[in-house]
Write a structure and sequence with these properties.
There is one protein chain. The protein has 2 domains: 266 residues, TIM Barrel (Alpha-Beta Barrel), CATH 3.20.20; 57 residues, no CATH class. The protein is 45% helix and 13% strand. The chain is built from 13 helices and 10 strands. Strands 1-4-5-6-7-8-9-10 form an 8-stranded mixed β-sheet.
Length: 337
């Protein structure tokens, strides 16, 4: 029987990548908004273990894989010699691979020596996915991120200087209503200081069972509405100097927000404005259709079949006395499937 380990998650952009588990779980594992890895212990796998997995994976996939993602949450904690062996092993066994990527924490990148990062890059690690989440110190502290703003900026800059392609993930809404403006402005300025290749939006959702959900239940965190989140995204996009903006996650309302900054800034802001100018009832209809998975873009709301289905649902909720806002919040949090 062919045996190899695989972890539970990877970035959406790595959906077609071969998954190679280099570490298990997350070394920090305390972020208030995250439900992944809770109750699990972090450990690093040895290079020999990973190389055996690579042999097993090759027996299954042959030389077909073109992209490879190193799991789990922070492969950059692997000793440099081991990580270099693993990367060379990937390239040897899968000669057609065009890109090898990994998650990395800003805290780790900021503390890695520049020569270590350059060596890892030369060995074949091409792209790093970094969860900045926010550039606001108050938000990072409240959410127990385990990284400071300076960690994010220093780590991101060191990654870029070492030659890595860099994706930074940000979470509009992570400051709640109290810190929405600060979250937008400080995140935009931190991204501008780093200059990543990609800025990927992950709108905040309060996931049941997380510390953030407990904070919300106590009233210590007031989540943004869908419309407030779009307003925060608009403010953030207006302040980011450069990078490819992507809205490639199911939690995001406006998946059309994809383009290059600063060249496409006017179009991206215009998409936000188009939604924000819609009458409130039309906003609710769009959100409902989007969260039900019926549509992906604003233009699709004009489809007559979608309109008819939304009318039917609205009539049923009215008859049964179900508030539409409660349904929308349940859909957004994932408590309704």
């Amino acid at each position: 029987m062919v045996r190899f380990e695989q972890g539970p998650i990877r970035p959406p952009s790595e959906a077609s990548s071969l998954l190679v588990r280099v570490s298990r779980s997350c070394p920090w594992n305390r972020c208030a908004f995250c439900a992944v890895y809770k109750g699990e212990r972090f450990s690093l796998r040895t290079a020999d273990e990973v190389l055996r997995d690579l042999d097993a994976l090759r027996s299954v996939h042959g030389e077909d894989p073109r992209t490879v993602f190193l799991q789990d949450a922070n492969a950059l904690l692997t000793p440099v010699d081991d990580l270099v062996r693993i990367l060379e092993g990937v390239r040897e066994r899968f000669p057609r691979v065009r890109r090898i990527t990994s998650y990395a924490r800003s805290h780790t990148l900021a503390r890695r020596k520049p020569e270590e990062l350059r060596r890892i890059r030369r060995a074949g690690l091409d792209r790093l996915h970094v969860g900045m989440e926010s550039g606001c110190e108050a938000v990072l502290s409240t959410m127990q991120k385990g990284c400071t703003r300076s960690d994010h900026v220093e780590g991101g800059r060191k990654a870029r200087e070492a030659g890595f392609e860099l994706s930074e993930y940000v979470m509009p809404g992570l400051g709640g209503q109290a810190l929405s403006a600060d979250n937008a402005d400080d995140t935009a300025s931190a991204l501008s200081a780093i200059g990543p290749d990609f800025v990927r939006i992950r709108s905040t959702g309060v996931v049941p069972g997380t510390p953030l959900a407990e904070m919300a239940a106590r009233g210590d965190f007031i989540p943004l509405s869908e419309t407030e989140t779009v307003s925060e995204i608009r403010r953030m996009v207006a302040g980011i100097a450069s990078g490819r903006l992507e809205s490639d996650h199911g939690m995001n309302l406006l998946v059309e927000l994809s383009g290059d900054l600063p060249d496409d800034r006017a179009r991206l802001l215009g998409t936000c404005d188009r939604y924000l100018r819609m009458p409130e009832d039309e906003q609710r209809r769009f959100v409902l259709a989007r969260r039900l998975g019926w549509i992906r873009e604003l233009d699709q709301l004009e489809d007559r079949r979608v309109q008819a289905a939304l009318d039917e649902i609205a009539a049923r909720m009215d008859t049964e006395g179900v508030p539409v806002e409660r349904v929308l919040e349940a859909l957004r949090s994932g408590s309704v499937r």
